[in-house]
Amino acid sequence: MGFRAHSGWAVGVVVAGSIEAPVVLERRRVVIADPEIPVSKQPFHASEALPIEQAQKLIGRCRESSIQLATKVMRELLANHNLVVAAILFASGRELPDLAETLRSHALIHTAEGEFFREVLVTASESCKLPVTKVRERDIRDLQSKIATLGKSLGPPWTQDEKLASLAAWKALE
After folding, report:
1. 24 or 144, higher pLDDT
2. CATH topology classification for 2-173
3. How far from 40 is each of 88, 99, 166, CA to CA, in Å?
4. CB atoms inside a 10 Å sphere around CB 18
5. What is the DSSP string of 87-110?
6. What's the pTM value of the predicted model, to 2 decimals?
């Protein structure tokens, strides 16, 4: 299973077969932001002007809710497929500073939100006893030419998100 996360959602693609002959079995959009919490798509943006204690509480509440949503999806996927690993695409950026410093920088807020949703997927996978492989997007660029034709069996659309999530899953098959 490969995932590419966005703010509040991810693309998930189930890949089977071998490195030489991968097959896409399923693709889906996975909602991992709680519609009951209006700011859950961008919890760090929503926390930017809050006192640090309130920011921590809000981000923690969003994290718990997002983990529950992602775990529910993982369980559904495990019920439908014999998943052996979750491959999650990660950026190759630097480690984030503490929350107070992160919230003082709009660029770091964007980075934190990306990491937030990727880590939600990691936690959900691990809670379902599914091993996680973190894949840096830049490490799979060389496989992109091969993946372009992989989605033909599913029909259109075959989006960039689906291609990259498939590449992550394919790389994890190694």
Report:
1. 24
2. Nucleotidyltransferase; domain 5 (3.30.420)
3. 20, 17, 26
4. 10
5. EEEE---PPP--HHHHHT-HHHHH
6. 0.84
